[in-house]
Amino acid sequence: MKTFRFGPMILAVLIVLSIVLMPLSIERALIPSGTVKKAASSLDPHIFQGMLLQQKMLEDKSYLPIYGSSELLRLNRYHPTNYFKVHPEGFTPFLIGRGGMYSLVHTLNLATTGKALNKKKIVIILSPEWFTKQGLQKVHFDPNFSKEQTYYLMFHHTVNPKLREKIARRLLQFSFIRSDHNLATLLRNAAYPGSVSKPTLALATAQGYLTYKVLTLHDYLSAYRIKPGYKKSQRQKPDPALADKSWAQLKADAKKSTASATDTNRFHILTSLYNQHLRGKIASFKGYRHTESYNQSPEYGDLQLLLDLLKAKHVKALFVSVPFNGKWYDYAGVSKARRDVAYRNIAHEVKSNGFQLADFSRFDSKPYFIQDTMHISPMGWVYIDQAIEQFYKKN
Amino acid sequence: MKEITADFKDKVYSILAEACESDEVKENPDVRIFDEGLLDSFGTISLVVAIEEQLGIEVPISEFNREEWATPNMIVQKLADRQ
Amino acid sequence: MTSFIPYASFRFFVLIGVLLLPVILIGLRGRRWQAYNNFLACLMLVLIFGSKPLQLVSLLVFLVWQLTLIRGYLAIRQKHNSAPIFYLMIALSVLPLFLVKLSMDVSALSFLGFLGISYVSFRSIEMLMNIRDGAIKTVTLWRVFRFIAFFPTISSGPIDRYKRFEKDEEHVPSGAEYRTLLYQGLNKIFIGFLYKYIIGYLVYKYWLGSPLLASNSVQSIWLYMYGYSMYLFFDFAGYSQFAIGVSYLLGIKSPENFNLPFLSRNMKDFWNRWHMSLSFWFRDFIYMRFVYTAVKKKWLKDRYLIGDIGITINFLVMGFWHGFLLQYIIYGIYHAIAFITCDRWERFNKKHHLIPKDNKWVNALAILVTFHVICFSFLIFSGRLNFLW
C-alpha cells in the first residue's frame, strides 16, 4: 500500500497564504528600525509607490515630510535635507517626490497613511506649471500611480465616504486605470455606490484583495533594498559651515553661488544645461508655450481633493508656492499677466481652505530663485528653509 | 496465434544481431535492447527493413514503439503475431 | 477580458483549481463525467485565448482545418493508400504553422498566430502519419478535438501521442488509481513551482540579471552560458511539470519531458533526456521516416551516410521550427555536427575498444564534456552571441 503525503502540500499552501495574507500592521512592524532613516533622503520611488515606509515615518514624531516633485532631487548644500542636518531644529525632512508627482499623486500618498496622519505637520511644494488646461496627464500619472495605494483606499475606510467618492471619480477619468479590470470595478463601486452588481463586485474584491496583498508584500520587501532615486551628481554633502550663519548671510552666499552658475545667459539658466540643450536652438523656443494659460485647470480640482483630505485629518500643512522662471516664460510666450493668474488662484485656494502659504511668486521676474526653467536654486532653498523653520517653530 | 518455431526464432535473432552489431541478443533474449544502448533509431530502421526483406513481414515504423518491442523475446512474439 | 496564459499567473492556478474540483471529486469516486470534461475543454480555450478575440478566431479556424484534414484523410485512406495524397495532407497540415513561423519576419501575416500553434500542429501531423500507417482506423471528432486541443499542454507541450491518449481516455481509473494520479499530479505541480517560480526565477533575476554579465568579455559570456542553461531547464522543466501534473488530474498521463538532461553521457543520451516529447516526435516523424524511405528505396549505398543526412535534416528542421533566425539555424547545425560526431566516435570505439564503457572516471568526464557541449548550444540559442554575426 502506497502512502500519500498530502500533508506537506497542504502545509506549503498554508505557509504561502499566511505570508501573502499577513496583515499590514505586521508587515509594517517587521520593517527593521533604521530603514526609515535610510529612506528619508533616498528619494527611492518605491517609497512613494508603497505605503508601509510612509506610514512608519508618520508614526515617528522626528520626521517632517516634504511632498513635492522633481525639485526635491536637487540635493545641494542648501536643500532642507542638508541644511537641517547641520542646523538641527528637532526634525529630519523626509522627502516624497519626483518628476510628475502632481497633487493627485500626493492625495493618494496621504490618503493611505492611515491614522498616523492626524494633526501631523507636513510641507507641500506646489509647482505652478502643473496648473495648465490639461492638468495631470497619463505620461506623468502612469509611472507615479500606485495600485497598492488605490487598493488600500478601496479596502480601508480611513477617508470619509464623500471624499473617497470624489477621488474614485477622478481616478476613473484615466483610461489606463479603467483598463485594470478589478481595480476599475472597485473604483466604480466607490465612485457610484450601487452601480456594480453584487457578484461582479465580489469577484473583483476577491481578486483585487489578492493582488493588493501581493503588492503590500512587495512593498515590505522593497524596504530592504532602498536605493537612491537621484543621480550622484545631484547630491552635495552637508556643509557644516552653514550651521551658524544668519539667514541674511545664507541668502547672500546662496545668491552668489547661484549667480556664478547661471549668469552666462539672460534667462539665468544653469550654464552647463543651457549650453548643452538650449543655446544652439534657442530660436525654436521663442513663443513655444504661447497658448498656455492657467485660469482653468483640473489641477485646481485635484489640489482641492488634497486640501479636503488634509482638513479632514486636521493636518498642519505648509504650502510652498514656487515661481516660474519669469524671463524664460516671457520668452516662451507666457505673459506675466497670465502667470499671475496661476499665483493668485493657488494662493486663494490654499488660504481660503485655511492653510498656511509660503508664497515666493514675488521672485517671478527676479533672477536666482529658479536655476533652470523650473527647478529651485540654492538661493530658493534658503528662502524655503527659512519658511519651514518658522512654520515648524510656530506650530 | 501461430506457433513460434525454433527456426523462426533463430532467424529473428540473427537479423537482430546484425542490426545491433552485437551477438549479445542471441545470448540473452530478455535484454532490453534500447535501454542497454544496443539498438538506436538508426538500428531500428535497419531492423525493420531487414525484417521486411528477409521475413516478408511489414512493420510500420510508427507501430514499432520501444515499450512493446523492448527485448528479443518480445520482438519474436510481436513478429509471430503479424505473420 | 482578463487573460489566462497557462501557468503564467497565480490567477490561472486558482482558476483551474476551482474548475478541476468537480473532476477531482468525481475521479476519487472512480468515475468520469465526460460531458463536464468536454465543457471544460471548450471553456478553457475561451479563457486562455479570449483576451485576444483575433487569436481565438485563428485558433477555431485552425482547429476546424486540422479536424477536417484528419477526418477527410481517414476517409480517403480507407479507400486507397496513395503517397501523393498523404504528402499533400501533411503539407496542408503544416501550412498554417509554416505561415505563422514566417510571419515573425513578415508583418503582413502577423495576425495569424496564436499561442501553442506548434504543439497543436505536432499532434495533428502525428495523427495523419498514423492514419497513413493504418495504426489509426477510426476516430471520434470529440476525442480528436480533446486530443489536439488538450488544454493542459496546449501552450508548450509535452506532445502526447494519440494512441496513448486514447488508451488513457478509455480507461476510467478506479478510486484508488485516481488517488495515486491525484497525488502524483499535485506533486508534479509543486515541483513545477519549485523549478519555475523559485529556482528559475532566482537564476533569471540574480544570475542572468547580474550587471557582471553585461559586458561582452569571455568570462561574462561564459558565466551567462551556465546561467542561461540553468534558467532554460528550470523554467521549461517547471512548466512541463505543471502541464503533466494537470493532465494527471484529468486522468491523462501526458509523457515526461525531462529526465536529468545535464547528467547525459553523450549527445544521443542528451536527446533522450531533454525536451523528450519534442525530440522523440522529431526522431519518429522526421529522422526515422526519412532514413526508412531512403534505406528502403536504396537512395544511397552507404547507410551510415543516410543516417547522417537524416540527422542533419532532423536538426535543421528543429532549428527552423524555433524561428527563421540565424541563431536557431546555427543551433540546429551545431547539434547535427555534435550528434554525428558522437555517433561516429561511438561506432569507432565499439570496434576498437579504445575506452572502457563502465569506468567511473570515464563516465564523469563524459558527463562534464557533454554538459559543456550542451551549454554552448544554449548559448548560441539564447542569442547572446548574436553580436558575432
UniProtKB/TrEMBL annotation, chain A:
NCBIfam families: LTA_DltD. This is Protein DltD. Pathway: Cell wall biogenesis; lipoteichoic acid biosynthesis. The keyword Iron-sulfur does not apply. Keywords: Cell membrane, Membrane. It holds the Pfam family DltD. InterPro entries: DltD (IPR006998), LTA_DltD (IPR023896). It comes from Sporolactobacillus spathodeae. Belongs to the DltD family.
Automatic annotation (TrEMBL), chain B:
4'-phosphopantetheine is transferred from CoA to a specific serine of apo-DCP. The keyword Aminoacyl-tRNA synthetase does not apply. Residues 6-83 form the Carrier domain. This is D-alanyl carrier protein. The modification O-(pantetheine 4'-phosphoryl)serine is found at residue 41. Carrier protein involved in the D-alanylation of lipoteichoic acid (LTA). The loading of thioester-linked D-alanine onto DltC is catalyzed by D-alanine--D-alanyl carrier protein ligase DltA. The DltC-carried D-alanyl group is further transferred to cell membrane phosphatidylglycerol (PG) by forming an ester bond, probably catalyzed by DltD. D-alanylation of LTA plays an important role in modulating the properties of the cell wall in Gram-positive bacteria, influencing the net charge of the cell wall. InterPro entries: ACP-like_sf, DltC, PP-bd_ACP. Belongs to the DltC family. It is found in: Cytoplasm. Coiled coil: none annotated. Keywords: Cell wall biogenesis/degradation, Cytoplasm, Ligase, Phosphopantetheine, Phosphoprotein. It comes from Sporolactobacillus spathodeae. The gene is dltC. GO terms for molecular function: ligase activity. Its main location: cytoplasm.
UniProtKB/TrEMBL annotation, chain C:
Keywords: Acyltransferase, Cell membrane, Membrane, Transferase, Transmembrane, Transmembrane helix. Its main location: membrane. It is a multi-pass membrane protein. Pathway: Cell wall biogenesis; lipoteichoic acid biosynthesis. The chain crosses the membrane at residues 6-28, 35-51, 57-76, 83-100, 106-122, 189-208, 228-252, 273-295, 315-340, 361-381. InterPro entries: Ac/AlaTfrase_AlgI/DltB (IPR024194), DltB (IPR024024), MB_O-acyltransferase (IPR051085), MBOAT_fam (IPR004299). Its EC number is 2.3.1.-. It is found in: Cell membrane. It comes from the Bacteria. Belongs to the membrane-bound acyltransferase family. NCBIfam families: LTA_dltB. O-acyltransferase that catalyzes D-alanylation of both teichoic acid and lipoteichoic acid (LTA). D-alanylation of LTA plays an important role in modulating the properties of the cell wall in Gram-positive bacteria, influencing the net charge of the cell wall. Catalyzes D-alanylation from DltC carrier protein. This is Teichoic acid D-alanyltransferase.
